[in-house]
Design a protein that fits this description.
The protein is an alpha/beta fold. It has two domains: about 15-30 and about 285-385, Alpha-Beta Complex (Aspartate Aminotransferase, domain 1); about 35-280, 3-Layer(aba) Sandwich (Aspartate Aminotransferase, domain 2). About 40% of the residues lie in helices and about 15% in strands. It has helices spanning about 5-10, 35-45, 65-80, 90-100, 115-125, 145-155, 180-190, 210, 220-225, 235-245, 265-280, 285-300, 320-325, 335-345, 365-385, and strands spanning about 20-25, 80-85, 105-110, 125-130, 165, 195, 215-220, 230-235, 305, 315-320, 345, 355-360. The chain has a seven-stranded mixed sheet with strand order 2-8-7-6-5-3-4, with helices on both faces. A hairpin with an 8-residue loop joins strand 9 and strand 10 (about 315-320). Helix 12 packs parallel to helix 15 (about 365-385). It is globular, with a radius of gyration of 22 Å.
């Protein structure tokens, strides 16, 4: 059946309304493309463009320098033995779970784990044992709870979990937990540790060997200024032959990666942004200072930061009773805040959220952050004057 002309008019080029806004969305602040990546997006955007140079193994392409990037630069960047590109952090987590564990095995993970960690375990047909957090206001993971959870699995099944996972930082509160201690606990039980670094790799220093992580999952589109979906998986050499095992029929294809993963614009934008990513990781202390300063200023307005204090990450969760109170009476109800911010060219707090919301200060800069603060204050004053 042929589509009529009216139906086709809905498609074609669609402009992005928010592309020039001040963006405080945690999903997007560290995924914003560099100018070099924007050029790469146009240059390499045609289908399987890099496959013109592939001899059968994508990550061994020498020109463009994908092999040097994947097998040289990224392992050094993460201080881990082997790295592969994936379609995202969730695909990296699934690859580890599916290769390391057997159906019915347990994986231990923190209660603040991202839903994709849970779904990855379910897809691999694994059971899950959760490690609790401290509750409000900090929601910090109980580090010693990893030992408790492992002991519970041993008691219930007669054997240790196949894997443990820690979220670093968690995607709700931006808490940085003590991964080194968790790693020590897990390794005492011979349980390997998977670090979900979707909000870490590309924003802040991640040293896998120092942290004691056996596997690292990262996100290119969330945290490495790349066009997604794209991610990476780092693996210690002890597990590389298991996770990256090859097909017996297609001998140069790695099974967990379905032969090859991101090709074309995604990998080339990650490569294009990499020098900038390395530089900004080295300036992480300034990002933490900006986050703490911003949080302090919001708390002066009665908007309360939940989670770890002093905070150690750009992602933060706030409770805003002042905005919730306004939403009960405002003409636009709970959508008033989104619309007020949109009028001020600020994007990132989801439509309909007033009482609780999260945001990120990463790479926004003090000048723009001050504008966001001034905007919050002016919104509060506007509705106070209407009482």
């Amino acid at each position: 059946m042929a589509l009529d002309e009216a139906a086709l008019k809905k498609f074609g080029f669609i402009p992005r309304e928010t592309k020039d806004a001040i963006n405080i969305d945690p999903l997007q602040t560290a995924g914003k493309l560099t100018e070099e990546a924007r050029r790469a997006l146009l240059e390499w955007g045609d289908g399987y463009s890099v496959c013109d140079f592939c001899g059968g193994v994508l990550d061994l392409i020498k020109k463009p320098p994908i092999e040097e990037f994947v097998h040289g630069a990224l392992p050094e960047f993460l201080n881990i033995d082997a790295v592969r590109i994936t379609h995202g952090a969730r695909e990296a987590k699934f690859a580890v779970m599916h290769s390391i564990a057997q159906e019915g095995d347990y994986v231990v993970m923190d209660e603040v784990a991202h839903y994709s960690s849970v779904v990855a375990a379910q897809r691999a047909r694994l059971n899950i044992k959760k490690v609790p957090h401290s509750g409000s206001p900090e929601y910090m993971t109980d580090v010693e709870g990893y030992a408790t959870a492992i002991e519970e699995v041993i008691k219930e099944t007669g054997k240790a979990p196949a894997l443990a996972l820690v979220t670093y930082p968690d995607g709700n509160y931006g808490n940085i937990t003590d991964v080194q201690r968790i790693s020590k606990i897990c390794h005492d039980y011979d349980v390997p540790l998977l670090l979900n670094g979707a909000y870490a790799v590309g924003r802040m220093p991640v040293d896998a060997k120092k942290l004691g992580a056996d596997f690292v999952a990262g996100s290119g589109h969330k945290s490495m200024a790349a066009s997604g979906p794209i991610g990476l998986l780092g693996v210690r050499k002890e597990y590389a032959d298991i996770v990256f095992r090859k097909s017996p029929t297609n001998k140069n294809k790695e099974i967990e990666l379905l032969g090859c993963t991101s090709r074309g614009a995604t990998i080339m934008t990650m490569i294009a942004s990499f020098p900038h990513v390395v530089e900004r990781v080295n300036n992480w202390d300034q990002e933490v200072q900006n986050a703490r300063w911003f949080s302090g200023k919001l708390e002066e307005m009665g908007i309360i930061q939940k989670g770890q204090k002093p905070h150690n990450h750009d992602l933060m969760f706030f409770e805003a009773p002042v905005f919730y109170e306004i939403s009960q009476k405002a003409k636009k109800g709970r959508y008033f805040l989104y619309r007020e911010l949109k009028e001020r060219n600020i994007h990132g707090i989801k439509s309909g959220l007033t009482k609780y919301f999260k945001l990120s200060t990463f790479q926004v800069g003090r000048e723009n952050l001050q504008y966001v603060l001034d905007s919050f204050q002016s919104i509060i004053e506007k509705y106070e004057n209407e009482k």
